[in-house]
Backbone:
């Protein structure tokens, strides 16, 4: 019985720890679906994590903290969209420079807030649902950030696949010329989705510093942004698969700390790199030719696996569109 | 004519001014005196001969990495894996120092070769992931950077741990025979400086005059049409990664033998990322690179002192460097936009 509850507890904490990856992954998915690569994730998550914690600490209001973090993420994303659409600069170059700038800025501005206790998102079990066996303790014994992460995945999927606006979103990323000919203001929508996506990335930063790894320290989020960018590729730019990727990475990361006692001689820094090893392996699997790999698996699981590994980037990703 | 020249000067100065304005705002926000802090940051590195030698020492690895980065940039590749290539060079060097028994006179040349080889192999690994695994080189390089850092930690805390216990300060010091000779008691080494100069000069002529440089630029402009013209895009991309890795590996090797005299956990020290900024700020021109490297290194040397003297976090140096590059890119984009607008009017 106690072993059983230990397992449930582990699953619960893996799910909770993956919430920031979900927000960042869905945010980046929206942005890239519209055609804008926001490469700055690793920096903008750091900066928004710092801003979220600092504002929540100073004002005593979690809402203000999350708001500030979303504002930071949205601003960085707007700058990338502006540089690419209005100034015709390379998105990757601007995004990379912003990664470094935001990271250093977070270290400098965040210095007074290093390792001080501060506010955190309160635990909020949902009455009634929490008593469901197995599912209750895993899914409904969490905090508001976790519930919002689930809603974000479902909401993004519905928006992209079941609404007129979502159809437009996919059109401006895949065939900007055709969308423009249909009377869609391509660049305005690209700004919009870049900014909304950036705000979600900012939310992810605050979710990290106010709900998952509480507080602030130098390089607090440790490569989270790069993992999120890789998850978007693994997820084939589709919300549910992005969420699956986030949970897989969350699980892998926790495996590191679970296995740590078994090999005490291996320093923690080594196990912390495990998600990056997985990142490379996963990208090789989804980027290469899936049929070559599928040859080695039983016939029955092939369609399922093909469904998971399939996925091409939006055709207009990272490309400028000159709107007459 | 004069007006044109003034405009050009304005566009050249604008990024610097914007950076200074941003820096002042951030410093005021942190409650520091901006003039004092900026003065210390730009001039702090020139207050003694020893500090100037520190700049020279800091320039060596940055110049080598930037030179390598120019090669991969020419082929249109985003080589974010330079950090890992430096680490690989330092690891190979440390391995040679620890395990290979050669006459003292041969040890240093051997460490240099080992560093180059390590970096080149690491570069090839990124290249293979890019060309055969079809993994975007940004993610391949970046993931390998983290793995390289983890490998270093494993070695320092495992097989290569000092007899009196492993710490974050690294392995035990190399024997004196593996110390790069330095100028006086400073950290700068003649051989390192010489190798860095040779590196950037070779890359300059390689890209300007050689047939290989031409092929790389063709691939960088449009790899599909280069392929149709009969250029082996895969092979040349791999070669570009290896060449960059060779220079970055040398940089990592020199960090171990000339600066720290041991392997430390963060042997690459962010120089790989910094070299990317250098190359962007130089507009991909090899002749501008040494100038930018000099400026960046001066800031790099001065910023830890700022932390001691004014208790400001040394990351302000990095903020300044990356803000400068960001404003440089933005101003260039703005200028291009103004020019197109003018052409339309005319």
Residues:
């Amino acid at each position: 019985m106690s072993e059983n509850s230990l397992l449930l507890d582990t699953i619960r904490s893996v799910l909770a720890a993956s919430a920031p990856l979900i927000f960042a992954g869905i945010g980046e998915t929206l942005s890239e679906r519209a055609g804008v690569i926001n490469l700055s994730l690793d920096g903008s998550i750091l900066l928004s994590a710092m801003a979220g914690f600092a504002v929540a600490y100073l004002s005593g209001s979690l809402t203000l903290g999350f708001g500030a973090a979303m504002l930071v993420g949205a601003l960085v994303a707007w700058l990338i969209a502006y540089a690419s659409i209005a100034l015709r600069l390379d998105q990757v170059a601007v995004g990379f420079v912003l990664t470094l700038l935001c990271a250093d800025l977070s270290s400098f501005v965040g210095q007074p807030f290093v390792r001080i206790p501060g506010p955190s998102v309160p635990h909020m079990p949902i009455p009634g649902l929490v008593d469901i066996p197995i599912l209750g303790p895993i899914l409904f014994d969490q905090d508001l950030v976790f519930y919002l992460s689930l809603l974000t995945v479902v909401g993004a999927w519905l928006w992209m696949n079941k609404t007129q606006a979502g159809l437009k979103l996919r059109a401006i990323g895949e065939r900007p010329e055709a969308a423009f000919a249909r009377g869609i203001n391509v660049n305005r929508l690209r700004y919009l989705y870049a900014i909304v996506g950036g705000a979600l990335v900012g939310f992810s930063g605050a979710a990290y510093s106010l709900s998952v790894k509480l507080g602030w320290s130098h390089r607090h989020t440790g490569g989270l942004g790069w993992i999120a960018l890789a998850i978007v590729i693994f997820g084939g730019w589709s919300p549910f698969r992005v969420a699956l990727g986030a949970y897989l990475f969350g699980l892998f990361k926790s495996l590191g700390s679970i296995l740590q006692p078994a090999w005490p001689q291996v320093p923690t820094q080594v196990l912390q790199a495990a998600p990056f090893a997985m990142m490379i392996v996963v990208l090789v699997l989804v980027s290469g030719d899936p049929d070559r790999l599928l040859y080695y698996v039983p016939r029955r699981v092939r369609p399922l696996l093909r469904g998971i590994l399939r996925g091409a980037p939006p055709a207009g990703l990272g490309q400028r569109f000159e709107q007459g | 004519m004069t007006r044109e020249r003034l405009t050009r000067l304005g566009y050249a100065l604008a990024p610097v001014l914007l950076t200074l304005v941003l820096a002042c705002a951030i410093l005021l926000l942190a409650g520091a005196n901006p003039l004092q802090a900026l003065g210390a940051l730009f001039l702090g590195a020139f207050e003694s001969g020893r500090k100037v030698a520190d700049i020279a020492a800091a320039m060596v690895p940055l110049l080598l990495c930037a030179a390598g980065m120019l090669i991969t940039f020419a082929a249109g590749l985003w080589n974010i894996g330079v950090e890992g290539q430096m680490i690989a060079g330092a690891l190979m060097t440390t391995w040679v120092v620890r395990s290979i028994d050669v006459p003292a006179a041969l040890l240093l040349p051997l460490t240099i070769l080992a560093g180059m080889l390590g970096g080149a192999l690491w570069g090839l690994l990124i290249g293979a992931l890019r060309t055969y695994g079809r993994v975007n080189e940004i993610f391949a390089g970046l993931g390998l950077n983290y793995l390289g850092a983890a490998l270093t930690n494993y070695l320092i805390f495992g097989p290569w741990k000092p007899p009196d216990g492993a710490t974050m300060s690294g392995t035990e010091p190399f024997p004196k025979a593996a110390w790069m000779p330095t100028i006086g008691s400073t950290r700068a080494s003649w051989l390192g400086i010489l190798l860095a100069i040779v590196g950037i000069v070779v890359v300059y002529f390689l890209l300007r005059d050689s047939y290989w440089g031409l092929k790389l630029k063709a691939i960088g402009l449009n790899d599909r049409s280069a392929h149709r013209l009969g250029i082996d895009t895969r092979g040349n991309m791999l070669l570009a990664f290896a060449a960059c890795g060779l220079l970055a590996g040398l940089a990592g090797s020199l960090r171990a033998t000339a600066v720290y005299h041991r392997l430390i956990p963060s042997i690459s020290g962010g120089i790989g990322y910094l070299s990317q900024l250098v190359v962007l700020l130089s507009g991909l021109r090899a002749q501008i690179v040494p100038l930018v490297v000099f400026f960046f290194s001066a800031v790099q040397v001065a910023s830890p002192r700022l932390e001691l003297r004014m208790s400001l976090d040394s990351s302000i140096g990095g903020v300044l460097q990356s803000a400068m590059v960001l404003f440089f890119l933005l101003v260039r984009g703005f200028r291009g936009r103004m020019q197109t607008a003018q052409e339309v009017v005319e």
